[in-house]
Design a protein that fits this description.
This protein is α/β, with parallel strands linked by helices. The protein has a domain of about 130 residues: Rossmann fold, CATH 3.40.50. Helix content is about 35%, strand content about 25%. The chain has eight helices and nine strands. Strand 1 and strand 2 form a beta hairpin. Helix 3 runs parallel beside helix 5 and helix 7 packs across helix 8. The N terminus is likely disordered.
Amino acid sequence: MTDSVGGPIIAAQGLELVFQTGDGPVHALKDVNLNIAKGEFVSFIGPSGCGKTTFLRVVAGLETATGGTVSVNGMTPDQARQARAYGYVFQAAGLYPWRTIGGNIRLPLEIMGFSKSDQETRVKRTLDLVELSGFEKKYPWQLSGGMQQRASIARALAFDADILLMDEPFGALDEIVRDRLNEELLRLWARTEKTILFVTHSIPEAVYLSSRIVVMSPRPGRITDVIESPLPRDRPLDIRDSAEFIAIAHRVRQGLRAGHLDE
């Protein structure tokens, strides 16, 4: 699925990004072409430094492309950022320790000028979505790492943007917690029908979560493969033992290997 009725929700054409550094130019992204339709879950996987996070930051308007074009909901990334078209979940939860969990989720709503009653409704709804009901008055230090990351997801969901950008949000968590949050994220995606862009270094995580997997090469970051997942949307964890799952993981691994051979 690459196009929706009104065209892709995110479209990159010939996208390039070169950073100018004291040691000379660094070519972070090269000739990236990708359309993402509304409601897709697209994972980006590749070696460290391949431009996965950089691509997310360009979409978010946090970095500016030096070549090509990218549009978000038919707008430039800057316009989309000002229109609050997306929520962003970083690698670390980034919660303010002096604010309660409810206060952290409420913060973007306060900045955007939502009414107090609307803030309360949205905080309650997003806490329910991430299964943190009852923790509104707790402080971040009173929660586990996995619960903090769920609170970070709730904060990104609170203002109900159509797009969720997730930069390796579960990378620092142990495997058991990570598995549970993967399951919860799939349930959340099914309930909200958000468009999700997800950066990961984990092949099993990319295959388990995604409707499509974008495999990227070492710097300069290029797309070496785009894999459409044949897996059903309803995915129990034990689907990872299936022949289909293993075949997709093998193709991802081949794409990563091919990217290294092309260096």
